[in-house]
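If it is no trouble, might I ask you for a protein's amino acid sequence along with its backbone structure tokens?
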Amino acid sequence: MSKKTLSLAKCTRKSLKNYFKLLDDPTQAKDIYHTIVSQIEKPMLKTVMQKAKNNKSMAAKILGINRNTLHKKLRQHKLDKA
């Protein structure tokens, strides 16, 4: 695993620890998996699309997903300009 990957993992752990500290009651955290995915996916897609200069094939390759899946996710997040 590269240092950059470890850095993302470390940032994620730190953010989650802070999130749980801010809760009065840890049982308030519901559906945490979907909450995290929904909040992270849009900025990730936006950033990758910018890096790929809006080239969906390149962005899909960077993300390691199928181009059709990328297109679907861009539409879900209202990031598809077409």
User: Anything to note?
Assistant: The first helix runs from residue 3 to 22. Residues 5 and 40 are 15 Å apart (CA to CA). The two ends are 36 Å apart (CA to CA). The chain has a mean pLDDT of 90.
